[in-house]
């Protein structure tokens, strides 16, 4: 039987028709009247769902504003989760259908955690709509976003743009309208134009990167263990170079040290003499966001663990070793002259560059939306551009996260109904680090502000205030460092705080269960070393 919205009602009335055939017509009508406005337990799921949607729509007195969110990272995901679905229609556009808990990404790259334990599917947010697509352009005057559907292989990594803006389109292109727009597209790894970095270096920004790194590390050990591999080749294969002395580079080196000395040393004991982990950084010291005492503690601990830290070293080129068929790389470093350093893998973690969408909209000439009635008698400025941050080239926002305009006639001009947060934006009032902590706090602030604005009698939102909860970094061997305005910790106590903090900050109950489960499995059984 085919059910329409009222199909079950008709079917139910037919079942009771014989019982009331000899009774009054009034009784029959009362029965049908009772059934129609009440979903019945024997309704088919589809019919019941249609009934609920129809009645829910009828109860809606006012159309919800459509809020479109660009990006599923820390800012975009947290904002979409906190925004009230009863007040707004939530549309999320991202080339990735999941959120990644990036602070634990280094752990997945060596098998301490499995990938799914730090992922959360976007569709579980119960959005009104989700589009797995790239945002290519925005027409602010018409409130339209041009998006391109993701094709297979396009969204494997957040490291570098998978498709440059000038290349031909691969997927279907459509326009998505919005009432309010939140730009939180994040950023990509900065290569500084150094030769070979984009082609041959490995990055650590997404699960696709972590998977590639894990496979390459294990592959280096297998190739080094091959009987015909020479000692010179083993030294190159088992030299793991990390470029960048920030938290990401430091934590990856620490996790790699744990993998090698806790697990691989038992399986490849004869290869331990060839192991070399080196961190290269252009700065005078690593971990510049920590005070000197904690940074020195980290360097001393690395030295005891056999991890080399090379500060004030300038990488000039990465190229494949043409004389070696094992896939090793050659690094040209300014301080070493013409001598090149061999490595099995180069993990790159130095700085950020803006998303292609941000670069595109920054060039747009926009009709000045503020040249309106209040400017009568004043000279109109015609077109304006979005205000660009000098250092990061990101989107400048005011204290309420509204996108600022570069309007000489109005120092507080903003783009109506457009907000930006996360790594792609910069507050005009203060400089904040490009961290998950900042992005998530901005997301919660903006969601609460919009929820309040949708209510009756809402006033002007209070400015965003960042609450620094501290900075942490894992150093290996169950040791870490932590720094906040209140205190400083190092060693095992900081490691316990590091794990507890990241566990409590996990996005869902599912993640909060999976993460400690895999920590326990790794502690008891060791890390997985199978390649597949």
From TrEMBL:
Protein name per the record: Uncharacterized protein
Domain named External alternative NADH-ubiquinone oxidoreductase-like C-terminal: residues: 469-527
The keyword Oxidoreductase belongs to this UniProt entry's keyword annotation: yes
One GO cellular component, as annotated: mitochondrion
Amino-acid biosynthesis among keywords: no
Pfam families per record: NDH2_C, Pyr_redox_2
Domain FAD/NAD(P)-binding intervals: 66-359
Single GO term (MF): NADH dehydrogenase activity
UniProt keyword terms in alphabetical order: FAD, Flavoprotein, NAD, Oxidoreductase
Range of residues in the leader sequence: none
Record-stated family: Belongs to the NADH dehydrogenase family.
């Amino acid at each position: 039987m085919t059910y329409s919205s009222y199909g079950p009602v008709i079917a139910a009335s037919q079942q009771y028709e014989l019982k009331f055939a000899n009774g009054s017509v009034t009784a029959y009508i009362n029965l049908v009247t009772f059934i129609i406005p009440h979903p019945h337990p024997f309704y088919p799921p589809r019919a019941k769902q249609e009934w609920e949607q129809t009645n829910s729509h009828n109860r809606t007195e006012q159309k919800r504003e459509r809020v479109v969110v660009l990006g599923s990272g820390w800012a975009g995901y947290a904002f979409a989760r906190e925004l009230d679905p009863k007040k707004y229609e939530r549309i999320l556009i991202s080339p990735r259908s999941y959120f990644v808990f990036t602070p634990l990404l280094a752990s997945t790259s060596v098998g301490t955690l499995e990938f799914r334990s730090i992922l959360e599917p976007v569709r579980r947010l119960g959005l009104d709509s989700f589009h797995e697509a790239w945002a290519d352009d925005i027409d602010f005057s018409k409130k339209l976003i041009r998006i391109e559907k993701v094709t297979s292989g396009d969204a494997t990594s957040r490291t570098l743009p998978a498709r440059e803006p000038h290349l031909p389109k691969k997927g279907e292109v459509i326009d998505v309208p919005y009432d309010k727009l939140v730009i939180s597209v994040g950023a990509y790894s900065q290569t500084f134009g150094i030769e070979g970095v984009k082609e041959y270096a490995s990055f650590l920004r997404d699960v696709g990167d972590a998977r590639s790194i894990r496979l390459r590390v294990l592959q280096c050990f297998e190739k080094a263990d091959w009987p015909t591999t020479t000692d010179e080749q083993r030294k190159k294969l088992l030299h793991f170079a990390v470029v960048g002395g920030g938290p990401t580079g430091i934590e990856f080196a620490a996790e790699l040290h744990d993998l090698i000395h806790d697990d691989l040393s038992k399986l490849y004991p004869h290869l331990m003499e060839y192991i070399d982990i080196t961190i290269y950084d252009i700065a005078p010291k690593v971990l510049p966001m920590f005070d000197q005492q904690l940074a020195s503690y980290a360097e001393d601990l690395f030295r005891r663990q056999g991890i080399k830290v090379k500060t004030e070293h300038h990488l000039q080129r990465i190229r494949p070793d043409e004389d070696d068929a094992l896939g090793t790389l050659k690094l040209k470093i300014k301080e070493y002259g013409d001598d090149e350093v061999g490595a099995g893998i180069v993990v790159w973690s130095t700085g950020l560059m803006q998303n292609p969408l941000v670069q595109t909209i920054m060039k747009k000439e926009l009709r000045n939306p503020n040249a309106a009635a209040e400017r009568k008698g004043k000279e109109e400025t015609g077109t304006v551009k979005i205000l660009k941050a000098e250092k990061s080239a990101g989107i400048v926002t005011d204290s309420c996260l509204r996108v600022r305009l570069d309007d000489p006639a109005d120092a507080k001009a903003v783009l109506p109904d457009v907000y930006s947060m996360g790594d792609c934006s910069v507050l005009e009032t203060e400089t904040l680090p490009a961290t998950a902590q900042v992005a998530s706090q901005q997301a919660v602030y903006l969601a609460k502000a919009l929820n309040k604005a949708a209510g009756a009698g809402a006033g002007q939102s209070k400015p965003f205030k960042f609450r620094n909860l501290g900075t942490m970094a894992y150093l290996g061997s169950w040791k870490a460092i932590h720094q906040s305005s209140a205190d400083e910790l190092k060693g095992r106590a900081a490691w316990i705080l590091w794990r507890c903090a990241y566990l409590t900050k996990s996005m869902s109950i599912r993640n909060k269960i999976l993460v400690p489960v895999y920590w326990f499995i790794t502690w008891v059984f060791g890390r997985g070393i199978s390649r597949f």
